[in-house]
Specification:
Elements: E1 5-12, H1 19-29, E2 33-45, E3 48-54, H2 57-70, E4 75-78, H3 84-95, E5 102-104, H4 122-129, E6 135-136, H5 140-147, H6 155-166, E7 172-175, E8 184-191, E9 194-201, H7 211-224, H8 229-245
Parallel strand pairs: 1-2, 1-4, 4-5, 5-6, 6-7
Antiparallel strand pairs: 2-3, 7-8, 8-9
């Protein structure tokens, strides 16, 4: 049986709720085979990050080469990268595969407040990697950080930031509204035929660890199946909303627990 295959390039979360672990769970839950390249090791749990060990860019390149030399990768999700040299080797690999759809989750700071991307690497992200992506998925603080602007507090400002992010060279931008306020969490998809607002009820739970990782990998799963961007984003939003709604059933950890990626199965 042939199965669609997606690759995640990201950091490892030993607590299992975010990063590579969340990505692989998402791929599996959505019927996609997951390959992985680890860019960083973290010591973290549901309460925060205590230590980070960046994997050398040479070894990241070796992992990428090994995957592409053997596997039929249909899409790529990129998460935590750690430093500028890692971004450079990822860009080099993607330049050889310009048709491969890439979903970039511009992870810079963890939800706990811990920095996950070196400050001097942000320019590499803006100038080299964003133009290689098909879609970027910043949350409100990440969109503001990429642009060097205050965090958007209304739809008009979000729209203006979305347009400026498109100008960095990627054809689609999804600004996530999970950090906003109100009864609905609204994500805005920019690009293509215009702007689409995707709303879902804002759920009362503290178990949201790995939400951004899960959304971007769910979109990559849709692209690996051959779906267009809008359909992949809509399906991913529905999947994440359901996984958050079921998260309290797991009772994992003492802090912000993970989503229930396998809510359809148990």
């Amino acid at each position: 049986m042939s199965i669609p295959l997606a690759l995640t390039i990201a950091g490892s979360d030993p607590g299992g709720g975010a990063g590579i672990q969340a990505d692989l769970k998402t791929f599996a839950a959505l019927g996609v085979y997951g390959a992985s390249v680890i860019t960083a090791l973290t010591a973290q749990n549901t309460r925060g990050v205590s230590r980070i060990q960046i994997v050398s860019s040479e070894f990241v390149a070796a992992q990428i080469d090994a995957v592409f030399a053997d596997l039929d990768v249909r899409s790529v999700k990129i998460g935590m990268m750690g430093d500028g040299s890692t971004i450079d080797v990822i860009v080099t690999a993607l330049a050889q595969r310009p048709a491969l759809p890439v979903v970039l989750d511009p992870v810079m700071v963890a939800s706990s407040g811990d920095r996950l991307l070196a400050a001097d690497a942000v320019a590499h992200l803006r100038e080299k990697l964003i133009p290689r992506a098909r879609l970027i998925t910043p949350n409100l603080p990440e969109a503001a950080a990429l642009l060097g602007e205050p965090i958007a507090a209304d739809a008009a400002t979000i729209a203006a930031q979305g347009e400026r992010l498109l100008a960095m060279g990627c054809p689609f931008v999804l600004i996530k509204g999970g950090h906003g306020e109100g009864s609905e969490s609204i994500d805005y998809l920019f690009g293509g035929s215009g702007t689409i607002a995707l709303a879902a009820p804002r759920l009362a739970t503290e178990n949201t660890h790995g939400t951004g990782c899960t959304l971007s990998s769910a979109i990559a799963a849709g692209l690996a199946k051959g779906h267009e961007i809008e359909a992949a984003v809509r399906d991913a939003k529905a999947f994440v909303s359901a996984a958050i709604a079921a998260a309290d059933r797991l009772e994992v950890g003492q802090g912000h627990g993970p989503l229930h990626h396998f809510y359809r199965f148990y």
